[in-house]
Amino acid sequence: MTAELIDGKAFALRLRARVGEGVARFRAAAGRVPGLAVVLVGEDAASAVYVRSKGKATVAAGMESFEHRLPADIDEASLIALVERLNADAAVDGILVQLPLPGHIDAARVLLAIDPDKDVDGFHPVNAGRLATGLPGFVPCTPLGCAMLLKDQLGDLSGKDAIVIGRSNIVGKPMAALLTAESCTVTIAHSRTHDLPGHVHRADIVVAAVGRANFVKGEWIKPGAVVIDVGINRTEDGLVGDVDFGGAAMVASAITPVPGGVGPMTIACLLRNTLVAAHRRDGIDYDAAAFDGIGP
Ligand SMILES: Nc1nc2c(c(=O)[nH]1)N[C@@H](CN(C=O)c1ccc(C(=O)N[C@@H](CCC(=O)O)C(=O)O)cc1)CN2
Ligand SMILES: [Mg+2]
């Protein structure tokens, strides 16, 4: 192994501490604390763990956490009615509906019901459009965290060749938009891409978000590239990423581990977005560049 390990867990802890300091300043200026509402539908075990972690992290940062747990068989209209109540609740700065939702609910319709200015997950199409056009909005937490790690590792990203493997609305597409905004030359690869190894081999930055264990091989990686592994796959060998870590670590200059790489950044960035939402709602100035240097 020659690659440097990118310690997302440590980075996320530092970011969470900075958010906590920002919350204290916000409280002094606004006379209130930011609030985050998290909605969990059903009993999915992993989702329940993530929601509990989000609630704890929110409180640890000095913000107020509102948890709403709904039964798996709740109908879509009732879920949307809850979202609308949260939109109207002055104490709520951020609203998050934990995904995945049960199959009988149309997630896109639920996400559309969230006020874009409280959409701290950045999943509303208005925020996707803002990101695509360089307007202030909310950037989805996982790609935002990846971009922070990349800038910390590389400094200026401009002119770098980047490949994003995966084109989901939650990771791949916003990741590509962020890298484009940082003046990278971006390739978006997916299941129909021809000669994926060839495309990967040209990239200085590889972001893997395909959801397939050990899919990206070490020999595809260009020597010295920085590899960001977004995958979280449960296998009989335990939790592994989308990148064959052992192989890639022999050629990359730096790589995120799974676990302890990108994952912890997701919740830290959620807190960051909630703090930003509170500042915007109260019309209080907030120097994003000084804070984390990423995103609108
Ligand atoms: N509304 C949302 N739903 C989902 C999101 C999201 O950002 N918003 N992302 C994922 C789940 N997720 C947070 O919700 C999340 C996933 C993973 C981690 C994390 O820290 N992973 C650890 C490993 C944890 C483990 O052992 O299972 C790591 O990678 O080190 C945090 C948050 C889908 N749904
Ligand atoms: Mg560093």
CATH architecture of the largest domain: 3-Layer(aba) Sandwich
Biggest sheet layout: 6 strands, parallel
CATH fold title of the largest domain: Rossmann fold
Which percent bin holds the helix content?
Answer: 40-55%
The ordered H/E elements are EHEHEHEHHHEHEHEEEEHEHH
List its salient traits.
Rossmann fold; globular; binds magnesium ion; 11 helices; six-stranded parallel β-sheet; three-stranded parallel β-sheet; 296 residues; binds the ligand Nc1nc2c(c(=O)[nH]1)N[C@@H](CN(C=O)c1ccc(C(=O)N[C@@H](CCC(=O)O)C(=O)O)cc1)CN2; alpha/beta; 2 domains
General description of the model:
With 296 residues, this protein is α/β, with parallel strands linked by helices. It folds into two domains: 31-116, Rossmann fold (3-Layer(aba) Sandwich), CATH 3.40.50; 141-263, Rossmann fold, CATH 3.40.50.720. It contains eleven helices and eleven strands. It has helices spanning 8-30, 45-60, 76-88, 107-113, 125-133, 141-154, 172-181, 196-201, 245-249, 263-282, 288-291; strands spanning 4-5, 35-41, 64-70, 94-97, 161-165, 185-189, 205-208, 226-229, 233-235, 238-240, 254-255. The strands form three sheets. The chain has a six-stranded parallel sheet. The radius of gyration is 19 Å and the shape is globular. 45% of the residues are buried.
